[in-house]
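Example pasted here:
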Amino acid sequence: MTRYGKELIIDLHNCDVSTFTRKSIKNFMIELCELIDMRREDLHFWDDEGVPEKYKQKENHTSGISAVQFILTSNITIHTLDKMSNAYIDIFSCKNFDANVTLKFTKNWFKGIVKQHKVFDRL
């Protein structure tokens, strides 16, 4: 069977929440894409920045930043949970990349513990 792409899913716990900022996440995306040789396209954020207080997310499992970094060959997504110190990252690309290098870089960037990770070949 022909491999269509690769997806790396990472659950990080006990992260340094000071890395859960738009600036840090943007820099993470830039450096990760350089490291794994991916061409960056649009980067989009969703969080409570500029949202009236009554509409801000207050639940542990919803309070944080979500970001999507489109790359030429697919996307990288991240969801941070500030109150839980967790980050959930998905890297999907039709272009091959080194999952081990990516995992190590991501763990070191967010200074977290890899709770679980999985690599899928997309067929």
